[in-house]
Amino acid sequence: MTETDGALATRLATEAGRLLMKVRGSGDGPAGDQAAQVFLAAQLNAHRADDAVLSEEAPDDPRRLAAERVWIIDPLDGTREFAERGRVDWAVHVALWQRGVLTAGAVALPALGRTFDAEAPEQVSPRGKVRLVVSRTRPPAFAERLAAAVHGELVPMGSAGAKAMAVVRGTADAYVHAGGMYEWDSAAPVAVARAAGLHTSRIDGSPLVYNRPDPWLPDLLICRPELARVLLAELEGVAA
Q: Any idea which positions bind Mg(2+) (predicted)?
């Protein structure tokens, strides 16, 4: 290995993003999913052939459950937004899980020309009024009550990666999701958010666990660390 896992994750997310920008003109979201999947699968096979892969765009290989190293990827997070002209809230996720821990991760926001990675985390600055990013198509049923409880405002957005990176970038303060997602939706964003010093957990405060037999994750909270206690306390009431 001449390239570290972190450097590889960052390069692959960035290069897949550049490929997607070329494909995007067709306006075909599924074409983007497929193109990025083919690219990432080929690169991981070339550079980490002994590792397992869990991807949204490929059949699940149960051998990953016995593997010590598993790449968890979402070749195109936010297919709907990718297909809509002018939207920037879509992403590429590349993460590495090793023996129960996320050890590398990168999230590319190709339409913004930026890639965020766990090896070079950004410094998250405090803000004023609490801004909570939620799904633009399926926000939690309790989202408005939570925002009111913390005297905040909701910011609808596409792509889990884009929402998580909004907190990393400091343009939002928390990302709250309920109603379910898959491990590839959050693994890379969580790795980057943790490296930036942010709080990451389930909405009940329990840890996020990856590379499970069923890759479904019911919910997620990413937020500035000083907000974690108050948000978890409010979530205990509004999400019950």
A: 56, 74, 76-77, 185
Q: Would you say 204 is a known binding-site residue?
A: no
Threshold 0.90, pTM exceeds: yes
Question: pLDDT tens for residues 176-200?
Answer: 999 999 999 999 999 999 999 999 9
Ligand-binding site membership of 226 (annotated): no
pLDDT digits (tens, 9 = 90+) for 8-35: 999 999 999 999 999 997 767 789 999 9
Say if residue 56 carries a ligand binding annotation.
Answer: yes
Distance CA 74, CA 46 (A): 18
Query: What is the domain partition of the chain in residue ranges?
Result: 5-117, 131-238
Q: Is 117 annotated in some ligand binding site?
A: no
Angle at CA 190, nearest 5°, toward 41 and 159?
Answer: 70
Assess if CATH 3.40.190.80 describes domain 131-238: yes
Query: Is 74 annotated in some ligand binding site?
Result: yes
